[in-house]
From TrEMBL:
The keyword Hydrolase does not apply. InterPro entries: Carboh/pur_kinase_PfkB_CS, PfkB_dom, RfaE_dom_I, Ribokinase-like. This is D-glycero-beta-D-manno-heptose-7-phosphate kinase. Keywords: Kinase, Transferase. PROSITE patterns: PFKB_KINASES_1 (PS00583).
Length: 352
């Protein structure tokens, strides 16, 4: 497959020899030779401007005690003791970008309801530059979990596709925000916020900006022309079918990249790490986690780190390695779902 012009996602295009050398090193990584990627200094990251667009949601947790069964129905009664709200979906991705010290803009739609106000409040407390479209008829997407003794008893979801006019207004806003950003990151959670994704990709690519997509669903035609797409194993299987071997996987991904004109595909493979597919070849990075506590949100950290690095001018292969290390750190954390530049580059410390 030939990538369209400007496919190189950094000022150092990936050459076949670089990728092969890197793959070779990764194969012999007893001394983690392949992982010795240069530190990215703080000013470089601070100059990186990432525009995150997608489905934002509120992750809400109610923690309580269960001491009796309801007299109304055979269900436990939870006496709620504590509540917690966290930014989810595209907002979590944006938070991950800014935790690394890069600039994160966030374009998304929320309703005029209490969860929408809570998202506004939480974003206000973060360093994310929020550009929110408000849809008065939209119930803001919220996932409410009810937990007792660390066990989830129930999850309740509220969600609806935003109104047509609001999405069109978002597209206009996207076009005005684009010139002020280096990289576009589309975080699709299939809630309708990315209805105009194809148009956004076309506009961003025409402006010479790399576009990274975290996909959802089985219709990837809508991501045509994106620079890089980051499915997990289940998401890729849904689109290319179940592969029988690594060679079969490579063939299926190459055919997909060719048909959708994708420069690169990064398959995240949970405990198996991640694999990058480009015209120059295939690069595999093994998982780096020392301890695994909470794997949810690792995909958000991967794409956020990639985008922040590419915006800082880091070559793709190095960006993938940083993203793999960031994922290895985030899965070792309970509760928080971000990685800072100091955690990613502890030695030597990132320069102020
Ligand atoms: N169990 C694990 N052990 C080690 N590393 C892991 C594990 N799970 C995830 N990772 C790291 O996190 C990366 C992303 O994980 P994964 O492939 O599960 O993404 P995901 O399914 O999109 O995650 P999510 O949608 O929950 O954010 C992996 O490529 C790997 O580096
Ligand atoms: Mg994911």
């Amino acid at each position: 497959m030939r990538c369209p012009a400007r496919c190189s996602v950094s000022d150092q295009p990936i050459s076949r020899s670089t990728l092969h050398a890197a793959t070779e090193a990764a194969t012999h990584d007893a001394a983690h030779a392949s992982q010795q990627v240069p530190t990215v200094r703080r000013p470089r990251l601070a100059a990186s401007r990432v525009l995150v667009v997608g489905d934002v949601m509120l992750d809400r947790y109610w923690f309580g005690d269960v001491t009796r069964i309801s007299p109304e129905a055979p269900v436990p009664v939870v006496h709620v003791q504590r509540t917690e709200d966290r930014l989810g979906g595209a907002a979590n991705v944006a938070r991950n970008v800014s935790a690394l010290g890069a600039q994160a803009g966030l374009l998304c739609v929320v309703g005029h309801d209490e969860p929408g106000e809570r998202i506004v409040e939480l974003l206000g407390q973060s360093s994310v530059n929020a550009h929110l479209e408000r849809d008065p008829a939209l119930p803001t997407t919220i996932k409410l979990r009810i937990l007792s003794r660390q066990q989830q008893l129930l999850r309740i979801d509220f969600e609806k596709t935003p109104a047509h006019e609001v999405l069109l207004a978002g597209l206009v806003k996207f076009e005005t925000l684009l010139p002020g950003h280096d990289v576009v990151l589309l975080s699709d959670y299939a809630k309708g916020g990315l209805t105009h994704v194809t148009r956004m990709i076309e506009t961003a690519r025409a402006a010479g900006k790399p576009v990274l997509v975290d996909p959802k669903g089985d219709d990837w035609e809508r991501y045509r022309g994106a620079t890089l797409i980051t499915p997990n194993r289940a998401e890729l299987t849904e689109v290319v079918g179940r592969w029988k071997s690594e060679a079969d996987l490579h063939a299926r991904v190459d055919a997909l990249r060719a048909s959708l004109q994708l420069c690169a595909l990064l398959l995240t493979r949970s405990e198996e790490g991640m694999t990058l597919f480009t015209d120059a070849g295939v690069l595999h990075e093994s998982a780096r986690a020392r301890e695994v506590y909470d794997v949810s949100g690792a995909g958000d950290t991967v794409i956020a780190t990639l985008a922040a690095m590419l915006g800082a001018g880091v070559p793709l292969i190095e960006a993938v390695r940083h993203a793999n290390r960031a994922a290895g750190i985030v899965v070792g954390k309970l509760g928080t779902a971000t990685v800072s530049d100091d955690e990613l580059f502890p030695d030597p410390p990132a320069l102020a």
